[in-house]
């Protein structure tokens, strides 16, 4: 009986959803499974090209270059806030490469709130975490995921990607 109870409990633990249960399409339309990044931290950021925080692309790129052996940076362009990401996937990628030298992965444009919210962001915004949960408030919110696919912290837009509160977690 104890063994059976233990097995049921273990099953419940292992079936707990993580980001590894999700995938996305990159700018070329290739499906990327987040489970491919097991063993590394992941920084997921909703981005926009015409925002006051757009300059954070530069620091996201620097973070990717400096800590790439420890963390995978993934940008998710979204047009949910003030129409600040109106471009096509091709225009967004071109803008990011030309203006900020972005080489980290960018997803196709997604919805990060509302009725059409991307399933990954629905999952992320409902996770219990030491910071806050609920809808994304603006562009460049950041979700730091641990090596096991669990949310470590969520950071608001004003937190720079190179801020010690993020880099100390890497």
UniProtKB/TrEMBL annotation:
Gene3D superfamilies named among the record's database cross-references: Glutaredoxin
A molecular-function term among this protein's GO annotations: peroxidase activity
Leader sequence residues: none
GO biological-process terms attached to the record: response to oxidative stress
Active site residues per record: 51
InterPro entries: Glutathione_peroxidase (IPR000889), GPX_AS (IPR029759), Thioredoxin-like_sf (IPR036249)
UniProt keyword list: Oxidoreductase, Peroxidase
Family indicated by similarity: Belongs to the glutathione peroxidase family.
Protein name: Glutathione peroxidase
Annotated organism of origin: Sphingobacterium spiritivorum ATCC 33861
């Amino acid at each position: 009986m104890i063994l059976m109870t233990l097995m049921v409990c273990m099953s419940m633990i292992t079936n707990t959803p993580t980001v590894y249960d999700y995938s996305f399409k990159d700018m070329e339309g290739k499906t990327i499974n987040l489970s491919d990044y097991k063993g590394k931290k992941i920084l997921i950021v909703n981005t926009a090209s015409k925002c006051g925080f757009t300059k954070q692309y530069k620091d996201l790129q620097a973070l990717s270059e400096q800590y790439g052996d420890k963390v995978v940076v993934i940008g998710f362009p979204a047009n949910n806030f003030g129409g600040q990401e109106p471009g096509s996937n091709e225009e967004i990628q071109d803008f990011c490469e030309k203006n900020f030298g972005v080489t980290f992965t960018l997803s196709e444009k997604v919805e990060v709130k509302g009725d059409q919210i991307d399933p990954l962001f629905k999952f992320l915004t409902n996770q219990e975490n030491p910071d806050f949960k609920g809808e994304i408030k603006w562009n460049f919110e950041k979700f730091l995921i641990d090596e096991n696919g669990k949310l470590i912290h969520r950071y608001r837009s004003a937190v720079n990607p190179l801020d010690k509160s993020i880099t100390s977690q890497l």
